[in-house]
Specification:
The chain is α+β, with helices and mostly antiparallel strands. The protein has 3 domains: 115 residues, no CATH class; 45 residues, no CATH class; 55 residues, Ribonuclease H-like superfamily/Ribonuclease H (Nucleotidyltransferase, domain 5, 2-Layer Sandwich), CATH 3.30.420.10. The strands form 3 sheets. Strands 1, 2, 3, 8 and 9 form a 5-stranded mixed β-sheet that branches. The chain has a 4-stranded antiparallel β-sheet with strand order 4-5-6-7, with no helix packed on it. Strands 10-11-12 form a 3-stranded antiparallel β-sheet, with no helix packed on it. The protein is elongated, with a radius of gyration of 35 Å. The relative contact order is 0.10. About 5% of the residues have low confidence.
Amino acid sequence: MFLQHEKINDITIGGVGQKTARACGRGTVVLELHCTSHIYHIQLQNILHVPETKNNLISLSRWETNGRHYVGKEGKLNLIAQHGTCIAQGYKIMNNLYKLCLYIPAHKNAIQDHIEHAFATAQSPPSWETWHRRFGHISYSGLQWMHDLDLVEGFTVNTNSSKPNCVACTEAKQTVKLFNNDVIHNSEPGELTHIDLWGKYPIASIHGNIYYILMVDDSTRYITVEFLKLKSQAVKHVQNYLTYLSARNKNPCAI
């Protein structure tokens, strides 16, 4: 089918379903199109020759260059040339592809429209580190197991890529020795209160609060939380807390 053909170094290209193939050549092809009782001829340049692929693919984004466009509606596709004439029609099939009927012309020199077209080379497959993050920081051994058994469709990975230590995983798995559970609290309920004022939040709550104050009784470990719109409101909440203790015959000594 090639009018001109030259060998090239193998190029990895992407296809349907995350599959890859190798292009071994590049050249020019002239095709014949039948549309509304008319015959048109087009020349496709810089076409990649992919022996492994049984279907020929054309890029609609490439078609849109140099004043051409296409119209897709209700499962049908029309290719429009620069002069506004529809020169090819197709219909949608599986995998969201359109099928076009193209023919090899009897006279290859009959060229009515010139089109530059080239398949885009595919990016290299994602690394092990990328898939580690995509799968929610699963272990590399788990990734290797899924890949070897082909358990996930579209799981293409650069098997030569490294498997570096993940900082997030390392930090998440760190442990801290438990504090001594035999801490003795000599205070009486209400006598000593630990207070922490936190804020401000970068996003306000539904009720417009951007601070909170936390009060922990040293003896009972009972926790009181109050939410604040303004930092200055903390003083009033502390006063209310002390009043609450005094009303219940508690003896607050320190905060």
